[in-house]
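User: Can you recover a sequence for this backbone? Please restate the input before giving your answer.

Assistant: Of course. Working from this structure:
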């Protein structure tokens, strides 16, 4: 499998499977309680099921960012216009990948700790949730930079470039502006960000 093919499939399948596993299966089978005691209680109701779902969710979630990092790397062509934006975007997505590994991996520690100390497990769960919040912010910055590189280099499709920029600006604004955003709005933005990554993957596979 070539790097281009791997990049394309990670971008196509990563966001879609993340939505199905974390957005649908996790909520349906485990629950969607707030981070802390409620979330820990839900995880421990069926530990084996929680381990399976969170493991699968972690892999596909992180896979999406690996795909974005590989896409950014493919657009870093030395002194070519837009390469600087792609380079910085690549560094950001590598960092997000590391943060995603840590945050999602903490679920295993949470369930292990909860067997003897639910209070400490709840604290760890809150910390993990905080890491996910920072991921959303830097995901937006990475998208803005990568979208700018796409527009400058005229790679993939101009629509994809603009979508990356737009769905990069929104997560950043929602993070830095002190405004009460409903769960429905946040969900729509997440879907938009995910579908944009999937669209980028389709064009990568098509060789555009």
């Amino acid at each position: 499998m070539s790097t281009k093919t791997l990049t394309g499939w990670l971008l196509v399948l990563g966001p879609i499977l993340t939505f199905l596993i974390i957005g649908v299966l996790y909520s349906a089978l485990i629950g969607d309680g707030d981070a802390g005691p409620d979330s820990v209680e839900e995880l421990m109701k069926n530990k084996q099921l929680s381990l399976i779902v969170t493991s699968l969710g972690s892999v596909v979630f992180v896979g999406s960012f690996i795909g974005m990092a590989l896409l950014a790397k493919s657009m870093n062509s030395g002194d070519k216009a837009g390469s600087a934006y792609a380079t910085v975007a690549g560094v950001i997505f590598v960092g997000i990948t590391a943060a995603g590994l840590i945050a999602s991996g903490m679920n295993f520690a949470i369930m292990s700790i909860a067997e003897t100390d639910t209070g400490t497990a709840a604290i760890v769960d809150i910390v993990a949730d905080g890491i996910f919040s920072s991921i959303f912010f830097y995901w937006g910055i990475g998208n803005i930079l990568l979208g700018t590189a796409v527009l400058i280099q005229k790679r993939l499709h101009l629509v994809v470039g603009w979508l990356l920029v737009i769905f990069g600006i929104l997560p950043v604004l929602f993070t830095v502006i002190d405004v009460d955003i409903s769960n429905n709005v946040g969900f729509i933005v997440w879907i938009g960000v995910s579908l944009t990554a999937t669209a980028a993957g389709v064009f990568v596979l098509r060789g555009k």
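That completes the design. The chain has one domain: 3-199.
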